[in-house]
């Protein structure tokens, strides 16, 4: 039995889909049962509640051999993930798989990767078997720019000339499912990228190619981005996202990894394929 969190979100949803296809026995923590109706219909046992509630989490972990830990970024993420780790130890879970990020390193400078790294260290010291899944920027983040791409053939982000090795969430879900069902993944940290290093100008070029019309990337000053997102994100999250995006603008990523292909045996999904698969929202 595998106990999953985050299944009503992007990566957890893809992970659950892959695991269902593999026929794995699944139990999932959800806050809103209605959002997980399809999973329930596919045979996933649902536990309804919040990850901050230790009794609910213990119920989910009862008899589970493996657990998948994914939470969205927020001020409580680190505390909730550390508590989840303690409960996994107490419940007899053997293997904990954590969704982290490629930026999470020992000398991480900004709050989101720092929190991921702190939890990684906590898990490594817990005595559990562990695997860290550490993806780069999700292609699915570009869906937030779909309205301006569709209406103006332009998108605005505060990444300057920064580069990423963006990966498709479907591929990240496939990696999580492999790690949760395959052999030899304990004690491994997997850095997952897509197939190419791309600046956001390159991203615009890929959109132009697939949509058949010129699409432009217009770098947005960070102050303007901060202003636009004020009230949409709570202050801790807004600050953390601005710092992370500033790091991408200034440092970015200069390489891809072959980890996805080594684990899954095929090439990762390209950005052009991602755009093609989401044509209805972009065109
Ligand atoms: N975006 C990127 O480019 C990127 C890159 C690398 C790593 N990451 C990492 O990926 C993670 C986010 O993954 P995602 O984009 O798949 O997340 P997401 O789509 O925002 O989904 C979050 C999931 O967590 C659930 N959840 C939220 N708060 C909860 C709580 N208090 N108790 C129980 N469940 C709760 C949500 O449930 P509801 O449906 O009820 O809200 C949802 O299922 C973050 O840790 C981030 O650092 C992101």
Question: What topology emerges from the helices and strands here?
Answer:
Blueprint: E1 2-4, H1 10-22, E2 26-30, H2 37-41, E3 45-48, H3 54-61, E4 66-69, H4 77-91, E5 95-99, H5 111-124, E6 129-135, H6 146-152, E7 154-157, E8 163-164, H7 169-181, E9 188-192, E10 198-199, H8 200-211, E11 216-219, H9 222-229, H10 235-250, H11 259-264, H12 271-277, H13 279-282
Parallel strand pairs: 1-2, 1-4, 2-3, 4-5, 5-6, 6-9, 7-11
Antiparallel strand pairs: 8-10
Helix pairs in contact: 1-7, 3-4, 4-5, 8-12, 9-10
The structure holds NADP nicotinamide-adenine-dinucleotide phosphate.
Structure summary:
By secondary structure, the protein is of the alpha/beta class.
Written overview of the protein:
With 283 residues, this protein is an alpha/beta fold. It has a domain at 2-134 and 169-192 and 257-264: 3-Layer(aba) Sandwich (Rossmann fold), CATH 3.40.50. It has 13 helices and 11 strands. It has helices at 10-22, 37-41, 54-61, 77-91, 111-124, 146-152, 169-181, 200-211, 222-229, 235-250, 259-264, 271-277, 279-282, and strands spanning 2-4, 26-30, 45-48, 66-69, 95-99, 129-135, 154-157, 163-164, 188-192, 198-199, 216-219. The strands form 3 sheets. The chain has a 7-stranded parallel β-sheet with strand order 3-2-1-4-5-6-9, with helices on both faces. Strand 2 (26-30), helix 2 and strand 3 form a beta-alpha-beta unit. Helix 3 crosses helix 4, helix 8 (200-211) packs across helix 12 (271-277) and helix 9 (222-229) packs antiparallel against helix 10. The protein is globular, with a radius of gyration of 19 Å. The structure holds NADP nicotinamide-adenine-dinucleotide phosphate.
